[in-house]
Amino acid sequence: MLQQDDENHKKSNNINTARSAIIFFGFTLLCYYLLLSETFQQFIDLDNYYSQFIALLTSHLLKMAGIPHTHHETFLYFPSLTFNIIFACTGLDMFIIYTASVIASPGQWQRKPYWIVSGFFIIQIVNLLRLTGLSYVAVYNIRFFDYFHNFVFQDIAIIVILSLFFMYLNHTFSFKKDIVRLKIYMSLSIIVSLYILSLLLWLMVKDFYATIITHMASNTISIIKGALVTKITGTYDVITVDFTIRKDYIGDLTKSIIIKTSAYTGNTPMIFSIVTGLFPFIKGKRVCLFIALLVVTMHFFALFVAFGYELTEAMTRRGMEDSKELTLFLWKSFLDFFTFTGNRFTAFLIGGYLLLQIFNKKNKR
Questions:
Q1: What is the torsional sign of CA 176, 288, 165, 62?
Q2: In this structure, which of 233, 244, 264, 347 has its CB flanked by the most CB atoms within 10 Å?
């Protein structure tokens, strides 16, 4: 009887990948629509209200820490920098991704509200500490701000939500001995050690890698838009691409687009550390090759869409292209996707997927 109950428990926890993906992306898109769509914001602007609330809480923490600043609505003013607390700064995006993962994963529904609610408070506390830490760096070590903003604090947040998701899966599948090694690899000390190593390695090769991706993306979009790439120049963490579009009846249009390489490659060190930490548990090693190709593809399209949006907007203003509002909206939507979801949460999505597969394989044993 006990063996039969155990078999039923295993079957109830089997993962339907397609169904989980539909639930995950469906819930995520619904939340983004309710919070960010202009149609819904006409009735109640939840995003703005919550952004002001987070800015207020952060201001109180900064006062307690003795960090000089002034505060107005969603803005935090520092001597050399101004923070505008937008949706990506509130922690709601992290909470939405985490909640979607819990809802889309196996487990008893009556237990999920506990993990969702507790996750909300943990994520918000971590996010407030992240904003406070960034404020400290902005005031006292401004030259390191981009590193902490694009890499360190963002990846700490990813570690937190991935650890929460790991604890949820461990509780759901109720493994004891079989999961000991996995717990070791998921321990904070190991992940941080791997992350520090991968970050140092990545900073050494990041600009060279970004230059290659920039050449690929800029030349591809130039073919589609009928433009000419006239010059690509780069300094540390910044690459500038000059495009020229020639129309006989209008004249030449020159467009310079500046790209910060850390803005779209910031997920790479965390992805490397997660895959390396979970590598002993990945049975199909081809998965690692797939992940590497996925990351390169995401980086390529992040630049491709950024160039496409900027060129489409410039050509429309100049009268070189009769782009409808829907076209610009689609370019902008794809740009937001690759900027926020693609860069910020690819590491979590990859880590979460690997964890689900590992737990599912052990569940079938």
A1: positive
A2: 347
Residue 147: both structure tokens together? 């590193």
Q: How many residues does the chain have?
A: 365
Q: Please state, as a whole number, how many other Cβ atoms lie within 10 Å of the Cβ of residue 256.
A: 12
- Cβ atoms of 271 and 287 within 8 Å: the answer is no
Rounded Cα distance between 260 and 149, Å, is 12
Question: CA 201 to CA 196: how far, in whole Å?
Answer: 9
Neighbours of 91 (CB within 10 A): 24
User: Residue 193 is encoded by which pair of tokens?
Assistant: 């050690």
Whole-prediction pTM: 0.76
Q: Whole-angstrom Cα distance, residue 177 to residue 181?
A: 8
Q: What are phi and psi of 70, to 5 degrees?
A: -130, 160
Per-residue DSSP letter, 358: H
CB atoms within 10 A of CB 195: 23
Three-state SS for 107?
Answer: coil
The arrangement of strands across the sheet holding 70-72 comes to 70-72, 75-77, 82-84
Nearest CA-CA partner of 229 in 257, 208, 202, 250: 257
Instruction: Return the exposure string of 159-182: e unless at least 16 CB atoms fall within 10 Å of the residue's CB, then b.
Output: bbbbbbbbebbbebbebeeebeeb
Nearest to 230 by CA among 252, 208, 201: 252
* Amino acid identity, position 52: Q
User: How many contiguous H segments (helices) and E segments (strands) does the chain have?
Assistant: 15, 6
What residue has token string 């052990």?
362
Could you tell me if 309 and 332 are in contact, meaning their C-beta atoms sit under 8 angstroms apart?
Answer: yes
Query: Per-residue pLDDT tens for 59-107?
Result: 888 888 888 888 888 888 888 888 888 887 888 888 988 999 899 887 7
Cβ atoms of 218 and 301 closer than 8 Å: no
Task: Write the pLDDT tens digit of every residue in 194-246.
Answer: 888 888 888 888 888 999 999 999 999 999 888 888 988 887 788 999 998 87
